[in-house]
Amino acid sequence: MSVSASSITVDDKRVELPVKSGSIGPSVVDIGKLHGQTGIFTFDPGFTSTASCESAITYIDGDKGVLLYRGYPIEQLAEQGDFLETAYLMLFGELPTPAQKADFDYRVTRHTMVHDQMNRFFQGFRRDAHPMAIMVACVGALSAFYHDSTDISDENQRMIASLRMIAKMPTLAAMAYKYSIGQPFVYPKNDLDYTSNFLRMCFAVPCEEFQVNPTYARALDKIFILHADHEQNASTSTVRLAGSSGANPFACIAAGIACLWGPAHGGANEAALKMLMEIGTPDNVAKYVAKAKDKNDPFRLMGFGHRVYKNYDPRARIMQKTTHEVLKELNIKDDLLEVAVQLEKIALEDEYFIEKKLYPNIDFYSGITLKALGFPTSMFTVLFALARTTGWIAQWAEMIQDPAQKIGRPRQLYVGPEQRDYVNIAQRG
Ligand code: SDX
């Protein structure tokens, strides 16, 4: 696609709008000076056609089903690397050398403990509080403990805060899980890798030794890689907007967690598994596909559809393969997988889904695997947030260092009342 130049004429005044091209993907029309030169705004609720920033971290080709992290295909990173390698790649832009990887793993590992007073912070929650509510609160509270890494103008403090966020998310996530089941918190161990450490903090108990199952650890590490980043999705855009005001990184990540919780976004993995449980058997699938197509029925197939992917989400393909591998390896027969496979088959052959280009997304299969690994549905979005923290913090750091960065402040199309005078309450009918 070649876009040379563009212009707009407002009240007989022609305004040239420069076109900018990136390294790959669609070009953009720079409308930064449009209002100043014409007095009008553009209008794009949901930002369906709007680029909010320049970024070099992740690239998606929604038509081809391509996802690249710093240019590397997600399939290769998921199959050949580990999650902390992906985190390093996100933060620094290149794959680490063996020495750099060892140093990064060492530094992250030694930030996994949280301030011990966080334990008391948890006591304020009901045991049945949703773990995402706890995560929003606890991550935001981190800025109350780590004053030495909240000055965003200091590069070293930004790096320490980034390492702390990546390192402490598993610890807080495990604490939220343990608190919900009434078991004591388990401290991290420095001789375990990132994901094994997390699994042990979730499933170990003080009464006996705990050995991490390498199949579980490998599967979950791969799931974390798949969830690490995804361009300017709703939660990443939230983190960037919060960060554009100069808010500290812990507060920005807490804002991202809050946004991710929505069922249209990261909450879809929990909603998708609940949907599969509600469908129950492959025989019921056709009825639910009909509900999803019915304009008068608010029901949607959770884990289906995507703003960008108008082809199969490449992460969903890897997720589906991982689900089959984990269930086979653990000798688990989950009827919900049969429901999911049948649902996918029927939907992908249905004219409604074909015409609207609705395919399974990352959330369609992830819940079945996470359930097989022993997590309750309430923890699914917490695991998404744990992994996405790497992308959020890399995008936040990129924004802070962008010389063009300024506070985000969208405008609007006003449709309210024109100016009118106040009426004293004694005169109102
Ligand atoms: C994530 O942005 C990201 O990158 C997100 C994410 C990431 O890694 O950060 O990939 C993670 O959030 C994945 C998406 C998880 N959400 C779900 O699975 C929830 C179900 N999906 C839908 O709510 C929806 O598909 C969205 C929210 C994901 C995308 O919505 P869009 O882009 O705003 O599209 P739309 O709602 O305008 O839908 C287009 C049409 C509509 O029909 P019409 O009004 O044109 O007639 O498709 C229909 C929708 O009704 N449609 C669906 C559907 N999704 C869209 N119909 C039935 N079932 C669905 N799942």
UniProtKB/TrEMBL annotation:
Keywords: Transferase, Tricarboxylic acid cycle. GO terms for molecular function: citrate synthase activity. Pfam families: Citrate_synt (PF00285). It comes from the Bacteria. Coiled coil: none annotated. GO terms for biological process: tricarboxylic acid cycle. PROSITE patterns: CITRATE_SYNTHASE. The active site is at H306, D363. It catalyses: oxaloacetate + acetyl-CoA + H2O = citrate + CoA + H(+). GO terms for cellular component: cytoplasm. Pathway: Carbohydrate metabolism; tricarboxylic acid cycle; isocitrate from oxaloacetate: step 1/2. Belongs to the citrate synthase family. This is Citrate synthase.
